[in-house]
Amino acid sequence: xxxxxxxxxxxxxxxxxxxxxxxxxxxxxxxxxxxxxxxxxxxxxxxxxxxxxxxxxxxxxxxxxxxxxxxxxxxxxxxxxxxxxxxxxxxxxxxxxxxxxxxxxxxxxxxxxxxxxxxxxxxxxxxxxxxxxxxxxxxxxxxxxxxxxxxxxxxxxxxxxxxxxxxxxxxxxxxxxxxxxxxxxxxxxxxx
Length: 192
Description:
By secondary structure, the protein is of the alpha+beta class. It has helices spanning 14-20, 66-72, 144-191; strands at residues 2-10, 35-45, 52-61, 77-87, 92-99, 106-116, 128-138. The chain has a 7-stranded antiparallel beta sheet with strand order 1-7-6-5-4-3-2.
């Protein structure tokens, strides 16, 4: 098993980040062109806790290294199952995802959280802490060299995708702030 971890602080409030998170794979994100579709399977609020729980299926065009495809076969379309929990009282978004494609060969378990970064925020300038952890395990029993090679290639790809994902989400956050700001200005102008 290989582990990937990263942390990042977005220069946006938790409210902005948690709202824009639902548009992470929209046309504003020029880094997510590999995402073919995002389908919501279920969504509901726990009345006792106020937590919004959503299940989604994310379909991607994700090309595997040529040596992996030649060894194991497969296609360039992959599916990821994601469950997210949004707690407005705790100001916390937690997203847990796992691969469905090649799950009998490679298991990828990712957990992402967004929370206010109280150490880096100041009044009028709130920031949000992003943490990401992924455990990647090759399941092709007995072939330690092959397992290690698959895990290493997967970690490298995961790291590259994580970087691109942050860059793309920054673009979504920037566009969201601008669009919502323009809308607030229009509403103010219409009220006078």
